[in-house]
Amino acid sequence: MEAVLFDLDNTLVNRKLAFEQFSRRFIDRFAAAQNPEDRRKLVGQLRVADRNGYREKRELYEEMRRTLPMREEATTAEDLLAYWFAEFPSCTVAMDGAERVLQELKSRGIRIGLVTNGSARTQYAKLDQVQFRDYFDAVIVSEEAGVKKPDRRIYAMALSRLQARPENCWFVGDHPEKDAQGAAAAGLRPVLLLTTPTDADPLLPEGTLTINKLQELLPLCTGPFCGLEGR
């Protein structure tokens, strides 16, 4: 094994938990909600509209400006978007076991890469919030790369920076299409982190490994799946 590459959101950082925290701040700051039940419903509305992060942010906050009962009529979609960029990264929390996994891979001399869709400003801020940036030998953010997962070119960029061959690398992520299928198409072995019991997909590429917790990656890295028995 030459390298392990990771997705960021809901893989190394718990985006679902971070967005819940951000949503409560957002509703308290902008929404004219009079009681806890109203705020709870609005937080749920924002969570559904966000589509677990797979929503263009300007579109999302233009919708929120139209549909939420806003505290101040003069609030614009630009105000809401600015609040997102200023506040969301500070809500970032590491996924359970993430730092231990990164530390252990580093100690074994395995190169570590990150391939993530999103804006450079937000994704780097998340890395800095959890102090993970220094673990990586290569970081590829789609905004900077000009292509997004599952486009195989974004994986190729990371492999080039890592000076690693795809057949000797794994990619760990939580999305069956953007992570598992994309990585397999680029020649890497996919490892799918199952964040809910329903995440297993019968159309996963052949050879995909599945884990329920990041810590389960470490014994796989010394087992028969990667040819490092006894290392």
UniProtKB/TrEMBL annotation:
SUPFAM superfamilies tied to this protein: HAD-like
GO molecular function, one term: metal ion binding
Species lineage: Bacteria, Bacillati, Bacillota, Bacilli, Bacillales
Entry-linked InterPro entries: HAD-like_hydrolase, HAD-like_sf, HAD-SF_hydro_IA, HAD_sf
Taxonomic superkingdom: Bacteria
GO biological processes: small molecule metabolic process
Record-given protein name: Putative hydrolase of the HAD superfamily
Taxonomic source organism: Paenibacillus rhizosphaerae
Cofactor(s) required for function per UniProt: Mg(2+)
Pfam families: Hydrolase
Database matches in Gene3D superfamilies: 1.10.150.520, HAD superfamily/HAD-like
Entry keywords, A to Z: Hydrolase, Magnesium, Metal-binding
Magnesium listed as a keyword: yes
